[in-house]
# Entry
Amino acid sequence: MSAEPSQSVRPSAQLASGTPKLQGSAQIEKDSILSVRDVTVGFGNKLILDGLDLDVVRGEILGFVGGSGTGKSVLMRTILGLNKKRRGSIEVFGRNMDTATEGEMTMVRRRWGVLFQQGALFSSLTVKQNIQVPMREHLHLSQRLMDELAILKLDLVGLNPDAADKFPSELSGGMIKRASLARALALDPDLVFLDEPTSGLDPIGAAAFDGLIGQLSKTLGLTVYMVTHDLDSLASVCNRIAVLGDKKVLAIGTLDEMMKNDHPWIESYFRGERALRRV
Amino acid sequence: MAFKENSTAPTLEMSAEGDVPCLRLAGDWVINRLTDCEAVLADAKVPGEGRVRLDLSGLSGLDTSGAWVLHRFRGAQEFNGRRVQFDGLDDKRAILFEELEKHHPAVLKSEKHSYSLADMMEAWGRNAIEAMRDGLAMLHILGSLGAVLAAILVQPKRLRSVSAAVQFERTCIGAVPIVMLMSFLIGVIISQQGGFYLRQFGADLYVVDLAGVLVLREIGVILTAIMVAGRSGSAITAEIGAMRMREEVDALHVIGMQVTEVLILPRVLALMLAVPVLTFLSDIASLFGAGLVAWAYLDINPQPFMTRLQETVTVQTFVVGLIKAPFMALIVGLIASVEGLKVGGSAESLGKRTTMAVVKAIFLVIVVDGIFAVFFAAIGV
# Structure
């Protein structure tokens, strides 16, 4: 586990207050697992993101918030290479995504996992086969081992093994989210992208989901990039929070720093009536 | 860490402290080395009985998959009566093993499918019942269309004319070039092939009878119906099927709108208007192609071609062909709608239903044409 962050295991309540290690921009740049520089994305003559910079540090859980239509999903899709950017560079695991060779890109894709908002499970495959898709594509494992790993991952995300042989159309929304997370975790990735992981889950399920992500991050040094609107998630598991607005990252920092920020949108998000009732 | 790009091979070294055998593990126990990990553990022959120590302090990498293989090894050893102890774990790895302990996967039994004669007969039976249900579903939709049409006669506002017009544009105007081109080519082929044989009897001119009657009575309408089944039938199934997958059809129900009125009637109506128009255009294109070949290949000039055509072909011949067109359209539209409504949740079922819609529609178009032929023969037309 040489590449793991040296922070020790902390109870999740302290997670929100951040770590001293994350302070200082030089340190952040050195440890960054994903760095976005001056990225500009637009459709037609409308700019969605304009000169955006972002660093995600190895081992952290970064929560990403922003109003509807500010381009949170666009940014995530751009990082994943699903949208074209007009300007700027994106480095994942220290590799520039524009200049990486196909082999390097395959390496990067093996090391990240993605949970799409709607789950994006392959509808013609069972849940078990869905989880095994990345294993089959990238590794040569015995069927027995793949079955065991698939059931293990299912169990980890809190799904009953009975769900393994079901098709996605037979699952509820929350189960699809979990199965999809299991697929994202199939190759034990270093970096996972989660697009609204807890939306559509009941509060107990959402809390378990948060707990799972925190646990994985602690034990495996998993880095998490999470687009979310769930204030509970932001408060309980996220080390840092980034706010997207005005085509840029408006602010990035711990929850405490966000609470002190007096940008109107940030203020109403974190200190609005709804937020204060919960935090 | 998980997927290391330069991982080192997992190794296992046997040693003993006192009478307790100790397995010293090193290297990366991660998912891309998992086959090696499995092999290393399978080759390990643990001496003696009783306690075994596994020294894990030398591991340079460990993820859930590697931990699972170790956990499984421990399980197998303990089943054989040994006590296995993991040493040299730091806090994080200890938590990882604790988590695995909590999430021990149950052994999965997947259903085995056997094939036997009884299963085959069962499948036939199911298919027969399925075919009967299809027929009933078509009758159901036909009846419901009738009811909706009656309601529209009372309240003309309920007809979704814009929707029907859009559908007409797609199914009719969009199909004109391909239907006319195909009919033209078929006309050329009939005229050329017919002419080739008729010339041997010196009966060149009869190619006009052949092409005229064949095209107007049968070929024009059948070709058009097949083309529409492939083009618009598949589109209707895919549209309605995709709406079913995304629960749009259910939303219509809940809002209190009738699927037949909103989705099916405009499409079927547009098809029933479009196919006669397309058939007429197809007839013209085929006759034009036939005339062109007769002129170039059989030296029958346009003037005698037209005269002969007027002598042999009556309005009745033309009407016999054209009257079949709305029925063909109705069949294509009904089958496409029924299949579309049968789509389940998966992309696979959408593809299957679309294929079935086209196959069934083309088959039934030909069956219905046969029934019409028998009917017309019986009434002496």
